[in-house]
Amino acid sequence: MWFTRTPRIVPLFATLVVAASMPLYGASKAIIVTGLSGSSQNSEEFRRLSLETKRLLVERGLPADQIEIISGTPTRDAVLAQLKQAASSTPEDEFWLVLFGHGGISKNGVSAFQVSGPRLTAEDLKTALDAIPARQFVFIGTSASGGFLPVLQSPKRATLSATKNEGEGDWPRYPGEWVNAFAENPKASFARIAAQAAVLTEEEYKNTSLAQTEHARLADPVTGTILEPPFGVNLEAQTETVSNKSGAGALPNASEIQVEPRKPKAEWEKHPATEETKKIIAAARATPNPEGHSALVLEQRLGFTVEEDRTTDQLTYWRVYITRDEAAGEWANQFFPQAPPVVTTKLEIARIIQPDGSATVYNPAKLAACTDPGGSCGSRAMAYLPDAKAGCVIEIGYRTRALLNSALPHVSEVLPLLHSAPALKTSVEIRVPEKVAYQVKLNNTTGEPSVKTEDGRKVYRWELGRLPAAEMLPFSPPWAQWQAYVAVSSLPSWDEFAEWYRRLAKDSDEIDDSVKKMAAQLAEDAPSRLDKIRRDFDFVSSLRYVAIEMGVQGFRPRTPARVLADHYGDCKDKANLLIALLRCQGIEANFVLLNRGGSTDVSFPSWQFNHAIAFVPRAPAAGQPGDLWLDATDSVTPFGYVSPGDFGRNGLVFGDKKAEFKIVTSGSNSNSEICDEWKLEQDAQGWHGQFRRSATGMEDDQLRRVFRGTTPVQRSTVLYGLLAQLWPEGDFGKGVVSDASALSSPIELKAETTGPADHLPLITDPGLEAFTAPERDRQLCLNDGQPFTLTQTVQLHFTGQAPATLPPALQKEAAGQKLSVVWSRVDGQTLMRKAQLEFAHPTIDPKDYAAVRHAVREWRMALDRL
Fold this sequence. Notes:
The chain has about 850 residues and is α+β, with helices and mostly antiparallel strands. It has 4 domains: about 30-225, Rossmann fold (3-Layer(aba) Sandwich), CATH 3.40.50; about 245-425, Immunoglobulin-like, CATH 2.60.40; about 505-665, C8orf32 fold (Roll), CATH 3.10.620.30; about 670-865, no CATH class. It has 16 helices and 42 strands. Strand 15 (about 345-355) and strand 16 (about 360) form a beta hairpin. The chain is globular and about 120 Å long.
């Protein structure tokens, strides 16, 4: 797989998060520095700007005692000492650094801020700021300040300069206008304040009839680029605020839930019962649970806010009643996404209310100490709530802030709503910028949102009733086809997405002489078009799979020459090389994006892809009667067949001029097959003989996945385990498995066998196990949705005359599926039984399930007749 993004899927409930009642900037800090002024007029102006900035930061929400102003005759060491103290912040905090004064160039050519004594250079600031974990907002409000940006650029830091890099050394007017813009809305995003200040500065120059001699710049932490005004901000939107409001209904505040730890150093502590906790327990006990779920989500409040600077706030609160001990571990041991500075989670509420009303409260401040960055638990933090058991209620509330993947041009998020337990009440709130053409869609459940405009945002709110549990079943369709979720996207159309991807992948399909040479070698003496395609496919499929997913390489294929030289690549790299080889041979081939193993909603433009393959359009006149969908990723799928997870998906095919969706089909090879042959001879103990299995298509693919890379002992163990399922009463030896890596030859299994006289071999397939349940409430997808046939022939050679009477034949058909068991006489001593399943429509709707199940049961019983 490929196309990694900020990870959001932990448990289903952990993909959304709710706002807290605690102060948003409770532990945040700010440092404001006024440098050397050069004149009393400048000194007074710097002092005014500093005091006004502090006032606005307090109004924004930062504690006044955490805002330090350094003025008078500041020194480099004094500023660095203050910055060092800010290193105690956490990734959930904000840190602001604002410089007012004069800029210049140090002796070694680095941008610098003028202070008393040695200058404070951009490199000094970078070293100090890199040691601060908090999300950072830096404003260099000086002349000649643009040179700071390339040095200070960082994914966790937005840096604004009053001027661009060169030729703007006069004292700028922009710092004063920045303070004015800040005063218009102290809670606006950093980028919006910067953009509004640029507008005010431009207007000031026009009003005074002066040529503008300064141009602010912003180092954007999301895109990793230095932006010009308006810095990607839509200033036509109504005045915005930062998302410190509780979405989807506020989290219970301290007056509603007494969860504040009384022992700051303790990880968790006990609280006595209160009237509030007793009411919660009583209400939980009175909740009906007729289906016997081990837990009930009594209430959940979910929210998602997109900021204009492309950060997001995900918010959640849920209250869960544990009805059986088996669910305690799932709900009391919680993992949260934590990968600073890209993703940070702040826990607000975590407690267990015991059956007697007393509570075990987790200290949210301890979450940071329970973070395992990149370790065995991945980039996650864990909160452990002890004493969870049946009869208790668990409450969790937390906030996750995330920078969206800068490689993607638009917001594209999927927010699942279901848990492993049913949710009795759900509130959902989605906030997006008003003037951007966002799409918001609730899927797989009913409910119309209320839609309002608040603070420059369009707000969607749902109040949903009972949501079912996300109960996974074998052979289910992709989750997006049956689980409730909300999709959010700012992508206006698939055409725009295709244009973006073409720009991203520009020149990645460049073909050099090494690729042309390899294409010529592969095509040499190939008798037909299909032979060329097969050779190219087998060659690329044999290359080692290595995921290349860092940065832009998570989306952009490497060049065919690079993949050819390295002899490895991920799915998009291998598809790109395969297409290049085919084009060198004059065969049309196209790059395809799809959602392998999942589904794509083609009516909702958004990022829904995780895989890449190649498409070769049919060319009947050239000897290719059907389309070919070629997935060379896994090195196990035979040529001409569709790899597991690809079939039936909507693939976005990139043609020369237009990209369009096509459904991935299996072409001329429309059927997969398992064929078992048993040749048995009668003896005094019963039967002895040989077994042979061959397979094509998906069935061949699955056998290769089972046996590829196994040791001889492992192969024997797996083979004899399979044979024991086919003939539980039999005994086997001399088992052989053909080379699973040889794609040009179908895989074969062989063995010698003996068995009792009164039993014959069966047919087994993992899909048949799905028919054991009496009913099913969703589609049953067998064989990845691809048609398949199971055929078994059992030839019985008797020592004397074969029985004169043959068992009756069975011929059944249900919902388009055909099942048969037919006996025939080969000669006087030999009989043959041929049993067959033909599933032409292996995706079975719930309404047809009972009929197909009944037919399968009859077919199985017919196999027992000797």
